[in-house]
Amino acid sequence: MITSTLLIPVCNESAYRAWICDNVFRCIIMDNRPTSRVNQQFRACDLTTNMLVDILAEIPSDTESAASDTGSESGETDEELQLLLPDESVVEFEEDLNEGVCAESDSVHILSNATTKFSQEYGSNISSNKSSSTEIFGCLFGDDLLDHLVYQTTLYATQKLGGSTVFKPTDINEMKKFLAINLLMSIKKYPSYRDYWSTDPVLHESYISDLMPRNRFSWLLGHIHANDNSQQSKKGEKGFDKLFKIRPLLDYLSKRYTESYKPTEHLAVDESMIRFKGRSSLKQHMPQKPIKHGYKVWVLANETGYVSKFQLYTGKIGQEVEKCIGARVVKHLSSELTGKHHKLYFDNYFTSVPLMLDLKKQGIYACGTVRKGRVGFPKDFENEKNMSRGEFQFRCSGQGIMALIWKDRKQIQFLSNFHNIENMNTAFRKSKDSSCTEILCPDIVKDYNTYMGLVDKSDMVKSLYEIDRKSKKWWHRIFWHFLDVTVVNSCIIYNEHCDNDQKTLKQFRLPVVASLVVAISSSTPNRKRSQI
């Protein structure tokens, strides 16, 4: 009976490089004899390049091997130790796609993935003629969307007030002014929006109060709308959409975000939260997130923090519980990346073996952490208690999927469909006595730590100046959130267009506010209550 032994490198780079030895020495397959002989002669930490050359020199050729099979003096040829070269059969776990299970076989495989180099154009897809912050913001949040908001706001006011109350319809100039005031309020923050119009000279903000009367601002805040309520299907009817009230805005921005920016080589899929503490069936509770209550948004983010695609989570549809939701979300968000050899990173909520296989077939490289006990993940790894910091173990499949566990403070599991185990880095960790220790760190760990935080990067930039507008209407928080995301995306594109004029988010936000204000009509706003 043939058993398999997979070597675990010791925790220093020189020993590991000796273990690799230019990718020639792969693994040891031995028979059922005690392992002491192998451990004494072929431990990875004791190998040097010269020793490996001597070992390989003793490997018989095909003709010599055949002769020894027939003319062995001892008759014990089957018990001789054999070394496998890279192109031979090795330990692998084979995926059964119908059941999603990885089965351990009787051979060992060291993954040597050959990835296609990323050669796509990436970055801004907006004409270089549009170089001002106003023009770039207008490409993502255009006048056609503003016209839609104006029409739906007036329609909603008509439906709500009927013919009993006379009101002043809004127009595109007033809508721009309204949005400009909200963007400015995210920089100049007061406890209540009414404080900007306060009669107390300490609180009074003349710039905002001169743009629009307080009562008119309140009226727009209460009547702004994005869809026709009379067209909404009732719950249980065909075509019912939980996001109906905000659907036109989401569809519009999703399309503009995708068209305006070509994805970078490395991208990340992760959850983002929109703060909301009111009553809504869409609200989620995520105790591990900085924002614990609110709406969950799946986000595809680039290396620059640009949000290319997003999808709001609406919860369970009907009475059926959706299975493999993580895989569905990743496939939806990465649908535009097919065949372009992007590298996609996601956490253990999404990662599974079947997903890695599907993405590899579509020409998308992917890497992610994986939860313990996930179906298909090998279960024969060494116990965590027997591993030291910096040690790792791995298994590889014939389809090019690598499963790896790496010990830091605790054991971490990874899956990848493009990483090579030969590529190695080091990391520094502090000991209890404050001394720094250098440990081995596989490329898969380094890349994951580098690129997994792209969605968090986008959230961090947005949080610097975001519209924190409380409302009883559940969809208002979503509206203001994506207005902020649009400003962040526009700022990223602007900085790519203008290398010599880099702007912070605040420096970019102020010209956008100024341009929206300048666009208003020269007529003086009417302050009479009867027309509000």
The count of helical stretches stands at 16
Q: What do the pLDDT scores average to?
A: 79
Structural class assignment:
alpha+beta
Q: Quaternary status of these chains?
A: single chain
| Shape verdict | elongated
Helix content range: 25-40%
Number of strand segments: 18
Radius of gyration from the alpha-carbon trace, in angstroms: 30 Å
Distance between the termini: 88 Å
For the biggest sheet, the summary is: 9 strands, mixed
Strand content: 15-25%
Description of the molecule:
With 532 residues, the chain is of the alpha+beta class. Among the domains are: 3-69 and 85-94, no CATH class; 129-262 and 270-323 and 470-524, no CATH class. Helix content is 34%, strand content 18%. It contains 16 helices and 18 strands. Strands 8, 9, 10, 11, 12, 13, 14, 15 and 16 form a nine-stranded mixed beta sheet that branches. A three-stranded antiparallel beta sheet has the order 1-2-3, with no helix packed on it.
Feature tags:
disordered C terminus; 18% strand; three-stranded antiparallel β-sheet; alpha+beta; elongated; nine-stranded mixed β-sheet; disordered N terminus; 532 residues
